[in-house]
Automatic annotation (TrEMBL):
UniProt record similarity statement: In the N-terminal section; belongs to the transposase 2 family.
Location of the Transposase putative helix-turn-helix domain: 3-44
Signal peptide annotation: none
InterPro entries: Cas12f1-like_TNB, RNA-guided_DNA_endo/Transpos, Transposase, Transposase_put_HTH
Domain Cas12f1-like TNB, first and last residues per copy: 287-351
Swiss-Prot/TrEMBL keywords: DNA recombination, DNA-binding, Metal-binding, Transposition, Zinc
Lineage: Bacteria, Bacillati, Bacillota, Bacilli, Bacillales
Pfam family, one: OrfB_IS605
Annotated organism of origin: Cohnella silvisoli
The keyword Metal-binding is assigned to this record: yes
Probable transposase IS891/IS1136/IS1341 domain location: 161-275
Name of the protein in question: Transposase
Keyword Zinc attributed: yes
Amino acid sequence: MTFQFRLYPTPEQEKQLGITLDLCRKLYNSAKEQRETDYKQEGKTITYAMQQNELPALKQQFPAYKEVHSQVLQDCLRRLDDAYQRFFRGEAGYPHYKSADRYVSFTYPQPGAVLRTFAKAGSIYLPKIGVVKMNAHRPFDQAGVTQINVKRYADHWMVNISVKAPDVEAGAAVESTVGIDVGLSSFAALSDETKVDNPRYLRKAEKRLKREQRRLSRKQRGSRNRQKARRKVAKTHQKVARQRKDFLHKQSCRIVRDHDLIAVEQLKVRNMVRNRRLAKSISDAGWRQFITYLSYKAKRQGKRLVQVPAHGTSQTCVCGADVPKTLAIRIHNCKVCGLIQDRDVVSAKIILQRALKIAA
Ligand SMILES: [Zn+2]
């Protein structure tokens, strides 16, 4: 389970965050370069362990690296190693050098060891950065934190805090429930106030597919070129479908594993696709396919999937008040009970409410 909170660093801290990210990226790129040259020149395969052992020497040579936490540096090398492993297994292309706009986050992979304190509520201690103000709008189990990831966006910083799910005793009838709403900005929003993003590789592949389809439509009917273009489109299409399926399987597995009752909207996909702004997120995400996966996985594991009428879930509040909003309004703001939250998360909560009523 991952919690995402906004960070409010001081100008000094923000500078340090930027420096850290930049050093991480440079380390990643030079570690990649080292792997390549050593392989080309000596046929030597460099491993993660070998590169990690060189970190102390790196710090001696480039003192700036002393200002980056060692776990964070190790994580850069780990990312590179993962990228190579995925390539060797045939799951991904050859690792690229990372430009500044592609390397946007750094990670403390074992915060237990460094997470001495969360300073007073509303801030987080990031080793080598300091105590940074954080908009922690919801409590989480600090003892269960497994990873802290700091991410740069266009004009702000966020922190993703991964927390291990509480242990469930075997046979204990713990009723865990969750509501899921189709996200507009993300793939889905959950009633536990987390969000699931559309993976970047998928968005990219889909963009490529669209480009190829446009190209195909310009080719002359019956021509050789058209045949060629059609084959290309079919191939990309297949690849995108495979990647999307894989993503949907992973997400549905996780949700069914973690919850006993899962609530979703009955989707009238045809109606929604007519609305052009919604069309992209709905069809792209393969929402219908997702519900199908949820449904059979839930059945197999003896869990419940409840589909509720979709009507008005984005126009009311959990307190029952009407909170009308257009698509452009991203934040739910209820004047009656004071709830201020991401609109999709509120919808997910209402979907869960309705499902619990039906289930009862
Ligand atoms: Zn309300």
